[in-house]
Amino acid sequence: MTHHHKTRTIAKDGQLLLQKMETDQVETVWDRHDAQQPQCGFCEMGVSCRICVMGPCRIDPFGEGPQQGVCGADADIIVARNLCRMIAAGAAAHSDHGRDLVDVLASVAENSAPGYEIRDTEKLCKVAAEYGIDTQGRQPAEVAGDLAYALQEEYGTRKKELSMAGRAPEKRRDLWRKLNIMPRGIDRETSEAMHRTHMGVDNGWQSLMLHSLRNALSDGWGGSMIATEVSDILFGTPKPTPTKVNTGVLKSDQVNVVVHGHNPVVSEMVMAAAQDPEMIQFAESRGAKGINLCGLCCTGNELLMRHGIPMAGNHLMTELVIATGAVDMMIVDYQCIMPSLGHVASCYHTEMISTSDKARFPGMQHMEFHPDNARKMAYDVVKRAVENYANRGSVYIPVESVDAVGGFSVEAVINALGGAPDPLLDALKAGKIRGAAGIVGCNNPKIKHDYGHVTLTKRLIENDILVLDTGCAAVANAKAGFKISDAISHAGPGLKEVCGSLGIPPVLHFGSCVDNVRILVLAAALADALGTDISDLPLAGAAPEWYSEKAVSIGAYVVASGIYTVLGPMPPIAGSMNVVDLLTRGLQGVVGATFAVEPDPEKAAGLIQSHIENQRGNLGLDVKNA
Amino acid sequence: MKQVIVHPERCVGCMQCMLACAAAHSKTGSLFTAIAETPKPRPRIHVGAGLYDEGFPNRCRHCDPAPCQMACLPGAIYRHSRTNTVLIDPDVCINCASCAMACPYGVIRYHADPLAPAGKTVAVKCDNCVARQHRGQIPACVEICKVGALTFEERDRAMKRRTEEVARSATADAAPPEQAPGFSLLHTVKKARTEINLAR
Amino acid sequence: MKHVIIGNGVAGLTAAETIRRMDPDSELTLISDETFLPYCRPMISHLLEGAVPAEKLPIRGKNVYAQNRIEPVLGARATTLDVDRRVVTTADGKTHAYDRLLLACGADPRQIDAQGRDLENIFFMRTVQQVRQMLAVLPEVGHALVLGGGLVGFKAAYSLLRRGIAVTMLIRSGYPLSMQVDETAGRMIQAVLQANGLTVRTGASVEAFEGNGRVRMAHLSDGTRVSCDMAVIGKGVFPAHGFVPADRIHTDAGILVDDNMQTSVSGVYAAGDIAEHMDIARQRSWVNAIWPEAVSQGRVAGMNMAGEIVSYRGSLSRNVIRVFDTDVMTAGRVSPRDIDETCRQFSARDLRRNIYRKLVFSDNILVGFAMINDIEQGGALTALIQSRRPVEVEPERLMEPGFNIGRLMAR
């Protein structure tokens, strides 16, 4: 309906493109969300169970109808099992993404992945050392081979602890051991989660929740961390780089190639092909002024972080971007790629290419990328994109792009601080910066697009809380103009002073959603520097617009690592007040942090502020009353 | 006389009543076979989304006097007195939609129906499962509803129950324990979300 | 007690049945100039279209009069009314005394002033008899001219198009149904008809018909000509109260009635297309000549005549029409001529689903709407207008595809 665009998104380009799609009569994710209302309350509360075929079952939340599934599981068990499976799926997604990178690393070592190379040998050696691999006097390829082997082993290790969990502060590791939630093999925890939640296995809602935390930790301190570290080794560790964001990055006179998905394995090769002078010449021969590579979602974040490739939008923009009529090709790999995209593209001239053997989509051409053929495939698809330029109809690029700076890896932050975290710690101690918050996660049509991210970020930096963001949140904040050095004008006086003197924006782009582990590593470094645990720091996490299973896993590993986390949308747990209580209160006494649920970002900002001040008080630092 | 009584405050929006209703009004009577029938049986109860996207089970109230009956041009709508059910004769219906304009609840739909002459589009609405009742069964929507949003009982009894609940909550010394705290929590979140999204 | 009812339309019949139910012993006489059994007037266009056979039109069985112990006086038009002597005279000169009288004589089609008006194959479309005459000549008709883009003209044009006859419609205003809908909806409806073969001419009227016995050609006010072998005049109706003593019974457009459907003369009541009462949406006296109000008014008049004092809540103009695959529903104040600067208007259009919504509010009270397609929830909006209940939710939410009455109930 014509009046909807302003209640659906705060992004100007989003509003204008929604109007265009209405005129073009193309359905969007919001239309489908409307059509799904009301959504099933049993499922929203987590009390429907499809695990076995004695069922499906559901529990009456009013207490008069059935209170147990056929097997006898009550609401607590059903909610816990369902949540555990969500986390297992999220952890599996991140970890399998990491595995694909390790496979590339192994192929590079074997010299069977033309086009890929080791770009950061320093990080290669550092990570190799963590795995006890000798690096002295050895060729990078040799080290890479040993590291790839060790990392592959990490997925099915026989060791009692994941090696990268060793990066957590000692107190934290002791706690995990004590609770018996120290992550072991990456695949093992997911596999065990599926086992435990099978009918007739783990029917203790508390033990299910504890295993869920362990499974999530195997993602945060395992699969995701491997994904980030190996991406840095293969494609370079990010450094602050200027870039541009929103749909204004599309160019009306160039071949626009958009990469969408998560893994840099595909997008990096596409970038190489798109930047090849011969390919650019080919584009010029077809009447274009060049080839304009843009990103969407997290694979876009990967390119933005390392190369300053412009970013067209986040999750809820993926359909809308196509409606510009300016996208000659969209290349996808996996995760968060709406199966509707092929249909949307069929209404315009956009060619859709799927690239992963794991991920197929209706209405897309499947051109499978593997380490050995990726470079050739990348040239093939970009050539097709150029050829498709001639098929363009009318083009509508609704806005001008916005400037941003990305590329804040932990290494880059430490570098900006002059080589050690001390200036940041000093600013925290002095109270100029009250604390830091990681704002992460997706978009969700349940929340006005970008409103949650931008509102929360705005309120936090106003109150001198440094914001680190990733994923769709990072894109939202970049579009809002929070990621240029001038954005300190939005910050409170202390944060403004510190960021101003360091020449950094008050909101630091930390990367893609697997890159949340960069926040963990920084938090661990701060805790180590203070000789304390992460749960003692003035830190918080937030996922104001999350939607995916991956986000539940992230939230769970962040909380299990000791960071208080505020969720916008409520996970499907309301059917069990025991689980709700455990996650929002009980976990404090277990892992030193809890979840909170607050759909209103203004109120979420208040929660985070009081938490940070409270943490400051416990550390003996000055406390400001909100 | 027992009637179907709707308690919208209890609806969780699972839409199972819609499936059960469609299956009950199919030729074959079973969900798995009904979906292969032509015409496809359709539900006569409609779970819509309320103000905050909560479930709202909407179903013919069998009003007396019935505005649809008064508005019906060809006289296709009549009352089955034994079950106090307002029924539509598909042979007489001319699909003029006058009843759509008359029905204050918006519960009448227009489509081909397994129980109507083949190929004819007619007005279709809840028939209180008169056929099932004749066989000694309760209406299909009530049978499948596990949260008590649809009950089949004497209206007086339902009213009495409601009055007692209100009286209990009003006279208890301490605040009464929340009947379904999780469901209230879900509702609170949905309400907040809607209000935030609609704020300009 | 002797009751006389003039008119065997649905208002008169409903009143008669109500009286009989409540007062089994009274005398009941029903006078009508039509000789058919009481039938459903809105269905005569379905008869013309061929969607229903003539035998489906009667709304009651053959023995309706006997069953209700009604003395029918059929084929007799009332010509004079003496309210002092309480006597009605019919065209055949017979007199009918009453204690209580109901005027439910309906309305007559508005005549046009054109040369050649008396040629054959020029019709009104008001009675089943007129439609039967049209049906009789249809086999020889290839091109029909419809005068007027209001409801009657519109239904006539649609029915004839369904019969495969080429139709030209003359509309004085810019688009069809201009009394019922706004311009956007009107244009959408016009587009549907045009896609199905209708020719629309705006701003022209017929000055003369020409033909040799039967109409063959119409000369229009803009100097052009349209060949046609049939014409239907749909220029509106006026309440048939010509025989009523206007010095005694107060009339405006219709016969003015109070909340009990009683006229300014005690014992004389009016109901149906002839009666004028408060319009709920307009909040002023108005004739709403539509079937459901005729039923309601007949019922209220009957109860009051039988001694049970009940009130009528007022009338609301409303209509629902299906044309080809497009459904149109409208109620209350939607037409630009019914809207003033105090109204708040909202509209929404969904091109993908071909849906249009228009809502008109006076303060926060809904006073009108138009819907194109997906009209199932229209009754809920109609009821909202009739209730005059202030609407607390955002008007936009009433236009969403998922709208249902649950949206109007705060939990």
How does this model look, in words?
The complex is a heterotrimer of chains A (626), B (200) and C (411). In chain A, α6 (121-130) packs antiparallel against α10, α9 packs antiparallel against α10 and α11 (264-274) crosses α13 (297-307). Chain A has 26 helices and 16 strands. Chain A is α/β, with parallel strands linked by helices. Chain B has 200 residues and is of the alpha+beta class. Chain B has two domains: 1-58 and 128-200, Alpha-Beta Plaits; 60-125, Alpha-Beta Plaits (2-Layer Sandwich). Chain B is built from eight helices and eight strands, in the order βααββαββαββααβαα. Chain B is globular, with a radius of gyration of 19 Å. Chain C folds into three domains: 2-108 and 238-305, FAD/NAD(P)-binding domain; 122-233, FAD/NAD(P)-binding domain, CATH 3.50.50.60; 319-408, FAD/NAD-linked reductase, C-terminal dimerisation domain (Enolase-like, domain 1, 2-Layer Sandwich). Chain C has eight helices and 26 strands. In chain C, a hairpin with a 1-residue loop joins β13 and β14. In chain C, α1 (10-22) runs parallel beside α7. Classes of the chains: A alpha/beta (626), B alpha+beta (200), C alpha/beta (411).
Poorly predicted tracts of residues of chain B: none
- What percent of the residues of chain B sit in helical stretches (DSSP H or I)? 25-40%
Largest interface: B-C, 36 and 38 residues
* Assembly state: heterotrimer
Terminal Cα separation of chain B, in Å?
50 Å
Q: Alpha-carbon distance between the termini of chain C? A: 52 Å
Provide the gyration radius of chain C in Å.
Answer: 22 Å
- How would you characterize the largest beta sheet of chain C? 5 strands, parallel
Coarse shape of chain C: globular
Which whole number gives the mean pLDDT of chain C? 94
> What's the overall geometry of chain B?
globular
Q: Got a strand count of chain C? A: 26
What's the main sheet of chain B like?
2 strands, antiparallel
Figure out the total of helices of chain C: 8
State the share of residues found in helices of chain C, binned by percent.
10-25%
SSE topology string of chain B = EHHEEHEEHEEHHEHH
Low-confidence stretches of chain C: none
Going by CATH, the homologous superfamily of the largest domain in chain C would be FAD/NAD(P)-binding domain
Structurally, the number of domains of chain C stands at 3
CATH topology of the largest domain in chain C: FAD/NAD(P)-binding domain
